[in-house]
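For consistency, the fold was encoded as tokens, which produced the following:
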Amino acid sequence: MSEWKTFYAHIRDKKKIYVLIHEKPDGDCLGTALGLSLFLKELGYEAAILHPAPIPSVYTFLPGQQHLKLWKDVLPAHALYVCVDCADWERTGYPMPENPYVINIDHHVSNVYYGNLNLVETSAAATGEIVYKMLKSSGIVIDPEVATCLYVALITDTGSFSYSNTTAESLKIGSELVMMGANIDTIRQNLYEKRPFAELLIVKLSLNNLFLAANGKIIAAAISYEEMRAYDLLDADTDGLISMLRAVEGVEVALLLKEFTPGQIKVSLRSKLTCDVNLLAQKFGGGGHPRAAGFVTSGKINEVRDAVIKLIENTF
């Protein structure tokens, strides 16, 4: 049975489908959710992407914005939910509703297979890659709007096909999406040529708080709550910094600590070849991928930094 037939068997008798995304969604998560929702709409389904907090403004150029619904109430009971790019239900930011039917589509190695149907492919470079293959197997034409969304999903999780998770399959899918009409000019302009001034402030702050360990194999930067508040910075403003840190010569692992509320620290981890940061993040209740992971914890920012660095040093 094709991927689409498997998926369709679970939605065939439904009229309304709720798509759930993870908190602080990235390009893979949003691109996948929007692309899937647009495709379902063409088939006559009512698809709504529910999210408990505003999404990053950088992705407002993507087609399908009408499907996004800021929803802060209890989720409807006895409904069909398609969770995209969420390793577990908690990542959606919602309490579990009464008697949900869940389709779990994801590529994280930390996925706990929480759905009634689990379309989990940990070898996929992006969740968008899984959804693309599923939609393609339907035999239904993928239009340029859907292609644009899925192309964004693919390039954001592969670093524009530069990260180690990029495969021949990823490149093939990217090529096919361009042939289907993905608007690469619009994507380039919005993702890479409209950098907010806040990103420069983030770089400025991080330069004052850089920390090296393990003879330069570990680099860390920390941004306190006071700094985040003083400059009115958002999580999305820090997206580019962790990749910049990882790119430093000699660095094997980079970590970025951000204190968005007093005592609550979000830690992003990136590695090159020698350290599985997903395993490290899991020790703190988080997860992700071997080369990109994260978690949220409580404590003083420098103490959290030192504890994480000590664990990383033990992996060398």
In short: The mean pLDDT is 93. The radius of gyration is 19 Å.
